Amino acid sequence: MTFDRSIKIAPSILAADFANFGAEVQAVEAQGADWIHIDVMDGHFVPNLTFGPPMVKALRRHVSTVMDVHLMISPVDAYIDAYADAGADVLTAHVEAGPHIHRTLQAIRGAGMKAGVALNPGTPASAVAHVLDLCDLVCVMTVNPGFGGQSFIDMSDKIAELRRMIGDREVHIEIDGGVDTKTAGTVVQAGADVLVAGSAVFRGGSVEDPAPYGENIRNIRAAAEG
Ligand SMILES: O=C(CO)[C@H](O)[C@H](O)COP(=O)(O)O
Ligand SMILES: [Fe+2]
């Protein structure tokens, strides 16, 4: 996985058909998705439950691009090797998920993955100031994590502050939550390059009729680049 600053659209499978993930990720990839975003929730760190390493491992053979795994779990460290074995390319842990984010990020890189750190809307940019050298991605949550389809919370100031803090390091800024054609431009203007979008990508389409996925992705990309 080589670093580039171009806009990347990462559909979140939280908005896909849970009984048909393999075909859904193939469909969005064929329709122009750059990365595939996979939301892991434990019913403890967030008030919702999705799936774990076996599901991610099963998805690996259907995903030919970057598999971007967003862990909304606590604790994290005991599961890092399982996600490496599952084939995650990027593994993101929340800074709020435990007291030792520095150790967690080292362990993620040590297991051969790119390391991401996510910040809830209430968490300041300064929370990651001392771990930026251990990060490949900072994920700015623009909803409170746990559910898809929520309204966007404007975090433009935080995104711009992180962009300044990151300087010339090769660190992606990813935005997660409520990204659509109305909000994509704002977050890119502030400094983001990876846009996660669940409902705004999967809306109106299906595995049988995937063309709306392509139209949605193209529209979000155009809004982001415009
Ligand atoms: O991490 C997440 C929620 O915790 C999801 O990635 C996010 O909500 C994407 O869904 P949508 O685009 O529908 O908001
Ligand atoms: Fe996510």
TrEMBL record:
Pfam families registered for this protein in UniProt: Ribul_P_3_epim
Cofactor(s) for this UniProt protein: Zn(2+); Co(2+); Fe(2+); a divalent metal cation
EC number(s) recorded for this UniProt protein: 5.1.3.1
Known pathway: Carbohydrate degradation
Key word Zinc-finger present: no
A GO cellular component entry from the record: cytoplasm
Keyword Metal-binding among record annotations: yes
Binding-site residues, a divalent metal cation: 37, 39, 70, 176
Physiological role: Catalyzes the reversible epimerization of D-ribulose 5-phosphate to D-xylulose 5-phosphate.
HAMAP family with a match to the protein in the record: RPE
Protein name in the entry: Ribulose-phosphate 3-epimerase
Species in which this protein is naturally found: Gymnodinialimonas ceratoperidinii
